[in-house]
Structures
1.
Amino acid sequence: MDEVRQWRDEIPLYYEYTAGLAGERFLRGLMDGKILGGYCESCKETFLPPRVYCVNCFGEVKRFVEVPPVGKIAAITEDYGPRGGAAKKGRDRFAYITFEGVTGGMLHVVVGRAIVGSVVRPKFKEEAERRGSILDIEGFQE
């Protein structure tokens, strides 16, 4: 029988993912307290999340516009489960929020008693606390 040999080693791999061109514009908009969508000049349509190419005509999206400051809850769910192994008190509420004149929408936390059909606004963190993350929005509230 052959002798079994082994050794321990590590392969240091480091990954950096970018948000992409449209994602970066979106995240920079959040830092400024704005939700940005991609606007297709040909189709006259705004997309959220923003894209660099229109899903209708495949044209390049060169313009990013601020979506309306109020949205409507299209769907909502509640989560009572623990996070990261820690016991959790209460619930988290998540909603899919749509905006007038915008194709698509966004999923985020709902603050308060909002229900499907409620008109909500984003509650942004203080400007000094924003980091260019989806979490720059603390949640949506009536």
2.
Amino acid sequence: MRLLAAAVTALLLSTGAGPSPTSVTLCDLIREPERYNGAHVIVRATWKHWFEISQLYCLDCNDKGRVWLEFSDDLARASRRALKSGPNEGVVNLTVDGVFRSGGGFGHLAGYQYKFTAAKVSNVALVVKGLAGPDVTEKAEKQWACGGTTPK
């Protein structure tokens, strides 16, 4: 049943059919996961990625659960270009358009409670390039990450 629902969602996203996506905050998603489970949404958040990490987060609700970010196989060319404008590893702010899932067991070692599958990506903005030390990363996040003092 889940496989069928995922296939229908992917088909609707790729054909442009179905209801328009809802713009919400990432914190809204993880504070009310049952309300948004399976929903097509647009979110502006921060993405930390390297090696076996692909975490979508906002500082305001980082303690409410971890969101694994993955990209659909048919990610549009413009979205691929947007991702390439950021670092191969690091922390960026971005806008993702896709489907939110709750229920746990997602991502590396099934360590994430939520999953966001992005069909579109835009507005990529650098927060930290590469694997900076924890002090550098934390300082940059406090200023620039989703929920920071100067979000971009």
3.
Amino acid sequence: MARAVSVIMAAGVLFCLCGLAASLSGLALTGPDQSFTIPKGGSKTSYLRIWNEGDQTASVRILVNGSAAPMITPSSTTIQLAPGESRVIDLTYRVPADQPSGLFQGTIEILTGGTLATSLVRPVMVMVTGSGETTNLLLDRGLNLVSWPGPDRTFAEAFASAPGVRRVWRRTSSGSYVSASYYEGAGWWSADASFTYLRHGEAYFIECSAPCEVAVARSSESRVIQLKKGLNLVGWVGAATPISQAFPQTGSYHPISKIWRRSSAGEYKAVQYFPEQGLWWSSDSSFTSLQPNAAYFIECDQDASFTVMG
């Protein structure tokens, strides 16, 4: 039976989780993805369940590592599991009020025998946000391909301070495009009655009659974006991230074959993944990372999904 594979991306980093549970040395680990957006002074609770699928009692240690570790407290750090027994470990996430904003990463390790060789690892991502924080979306005269980094907004709300924005296009799942245009004295109108607003993390072509700078409130939403076999147009709202970290593929699992970016002049450059060598390569030596608020065409050999945090 083919194993289920999903690809999870949080705040700019993609992880591959195979199956419903990770298993090693008689242990299995299940539970939700440990990727959260938490405001300063806020908290969340989560959990992981550890199973002993072996035939001997297991002594298990729970360790939290990385820059996110000071914000995470497990309910237990050592447990004993009899054969066939499972235990839920509660995880408390607390962000101090004076914690700097940004992305904090780490891992939760489940160890037996005290060595990394017998550990299970679950990635952790905590995006810390503050109130009133904004980002600037810079638009050139002409056509721009961007990702919308803020919360969902109507065109009138999004571009109230940017009168140079005249038209917006979105790509449909079939590869066609629908547009909305601004008319003086009448406002925004689209032949597609459902196309009335911008959605967080989605990609758009935006046409401007003059350079514009749009101040956007940062969104703390996370979204699951589906990648289909073939060509996809998606937005990137995470931090600037090397492509090899954003999409850590392997020789046996590499759903993404190429990524294109559009220059301000309208030219496209591609970076391609070579599974035999396990690397990304582009004729454009500057195309090594994904940038905040940018959008990319992504070609896939199979379906995949990722969760992006604002």
